[in-house]
Amino acid sequence: MHFDEYVKHDGLALAELVRKGEGTAKELVDLAIARIEAVDGKVNSVIHRRFARARDEAERGALGEGSFRGVT
Predict the structure, then answer these.
(1) pTM (predicted TM-score)
(2) Among residues 24, 21, 22, 50, which one has the least CA distance to residue 36?
(3) Collapsing DSSP states into helix, strand and coil, what is residue 59?
(4) pLDDT confidence of 67, banded at 50, 70, 90?
(5) Is 42 helix (H, G, I), strand (E, B) or coil?
(6) How far from the centroid of its chain's Cα atoms is residue 65's Cα?
(7) Which terminus of the chain has a lower count of CB atoms within 10 Å, N or C?
(8) pLDDT tens per residue across span 16-62
(9) DSSP secondary structure code for residue 13 in this structure
């Protein structure tokens, strides 16, 4: 998945893509991290950068529960 596709979806739609196998939680984490790194210097909105932990959780399949399963 590329960023231009990622931004077309809300969190529920991204979770649905993961459920359908059309994307992975790891891909979503990597896209989110890339975007944070690209713009956070200007908007200063991320307080805790837990990127390694998010990647680890996605790789381990620790996707959470509920409607947003797979979206971290």
Answers:
(1) 0.79
(2) 50
(3) helix
(4) low
(5) helix
(6) 15
(7) N
(8) 998 899 989 899 999 999 999 999 999 999 999 999 998 998 888 76
(9) H
